[in-house]
Structures are given as C-alpha cells and as structure tokens.
# Entry
Amino acid sequence: MLGTLNGALEARGIKLAPDDISASATGVNDLVDGIVRLISIAVHYRLRIPPGTRDAVDRALSRHQEKCPTAMSLAAAIPIRWTADITEHASA
# Structure
C-alpha cells in the first residue's frame, strides 16, 4: 500500500524523500475454529509533507487503498484499515 500511496502522491506532484514517507503494518491473529488465522491488518503511515499540500495528500490517502493491487486482493478475506500521522515541513 505504501508504493501505491507514494505513486498517488507523485501523480499529484508531491514527491517525498524516502525519509519523509514510511509505514508500519500490524497483523491481528485470532483462533478461528481451532486454527490461528490472520483476521485484520492495520497500516500506519508517517508522512512529512510540503506546506500547502495537505488537501492533495488527504485525497490520495482517501483513495489509495482501492487502487492498491495487494489491498484489493486481500480485501474480501481480511479487513485492512489505515491511519496516518502527517506533519508539514518547509522545503530545503
């Protein structure tokens, strides 16, 4: 999902340095009918964005999951949710 999000940002003219975009993912397992199963995935993004780009970033975030091949492949079987910490920073 991170690659899809990064591509969506670049399509909107927002190119982030590698240190300015990252994600962590956590899977939740549970015992279902005696079998340990992955029951959900949570993705958390950390983005440092240029000033004035928040609206475009929010639009990219709102749509990226439905454009991600991996997320779409898993969506029918495993719920995926995401959160994001977004900070603005001045360009160097």
